[in-house]
Amino acid sequence: VWYAEEVDSLIQDEKMREVIKDYYDISYRGNWEEEKNVLRRKQSVDRIAGKHSLSEKEVMDLVSKAKSILFEARDTRVQPGLDDKILTSWNALMINGYLDAYHASGIQEYLDKALTNGRFLESNMINDGGRLDRNYKEGKSTINAFLDDYALTINAFVNLYQSTFDEGWLSLSNDLMTHTIDHFFDPETGMFFYTSDLDPPLITRKMVLGDNVIPGSNSSIARALHKLGLYYYNQDYLDKAQKMLNNIMPNLIESGQPGFYSNWCGMLLDQVNPPYEIAIVGQDFGTPQKALLGKYLPNKILLGGPDEGSLELLKEKLQDGETLIYVCQNKVCKFPVSDPDKAMDLME
């Protein structure tokens, strides 16, 4: 922030001083608190040019010189503290953001960034036994992770699998889920605590049940359980996810505010409209995979690769010399097709 008097003392040229004040809305009264000014744009360059009888180029030349003077002066101030820690949960959200962008645009760079981010979490934040750390700073990870770190990372890794068909991401997701159930699950309620039982005991262990600007930890872990249950034919995962949704339904209905349970509502839709299980098997799996990822199909899971891999739903799906798409629901598959558009027709 700046006082107008500071600007006067730093910029000796009167025309430059008046132009930069207009450009950044600097006044003696201030545009913030205690007569201080936040540098902000309120006037167009052509308006400033007209006021000072200058061309737009002349205005921008003066602004450029004035900014150099102000930035040099600012560098002499005590620098603000820098919050440069890396959080597992936020990076997991970023992975999903990159993957959504990749699915919508097909731009490879977005997938590459998601994979780089995922490998960073794998290499630096995951410990033996599937335990996660929450924080990374100055070359080391610290703080035993909370439930949102696990839930969001599992969902991100599942999404990485759908985008690459690299089963390593699913395996990592499953390891993390096993640890989460062992150390966060409350068998009395069927929900998950926010903190691990490996952490020092608290007066009370809270549960985050609703959703906010970031999906809540219980809704996220429930959706992860549901996805992994579908991939691994794990009925315990599916039962836990269903129980969690049943638990939250009275809150959702009585509140009259579904926006505070938005991620739960997404899961409810998956129960009303069971996800399509789309298996793509064959050497040219990447082409239909990318085409189907580019379609908006919120109630789907994708699986496949050049061979049948280890997932149960892929067994006996590989046909020599062909790449086939199987559209399935509840483990029952329709006749395979090779054209992604025909696969879409099977889901209408």
**Estimated structural class:** alpha+beta
The number of helices is: 13
CATH top level assignment of the largest domain: Mainly Alpha
Strand content: 5-15%
- What is the CATH architecture assignment of the largest domain? Alpha/alpha barrel
Distance between the termini: 57 Å
Order of helices and strands: HHHHEHHEEHHEEHHHEHEEEH
Mean pLDDT: 96
| Helix proportion range | 40-55%
Largest sheet: 4 strands, mixed
Q: What is the strand arrangement across the widest sheet?
A: 7-6-8-9
CATH topology of the largest domain: Glycosyltransferase
Described by the principal axes of the CA atoms, the overall outline is elongated
Number of strands: 9
- Give the total of domains: 3
Enumerate the spans where pLDDT stays under 50 for 5 or more consecutive residues. none
Radius of gyration: 27 Å
Task: Detail the topology: elements first, then pairings.
Layout: H1 4-10, H2 14-23, H3 45-51, H4 56-74, E1 86-87, H5 88-105, H6 108-124, E2 133-137, E3 140-144, H7 147-164, H8 167-184, E4 185-186, E5 191-192, H9 217-232, H10 235-255, H11 262-272, E6 276-281, H12 286-293, E7 300-305, E8 324-329, E9 332-333, H13 340-345
Parallel strand pairs: 6-7
Antiparallel strand pairs: 1-2, 2-3, 4-5, 6-8, 8-9
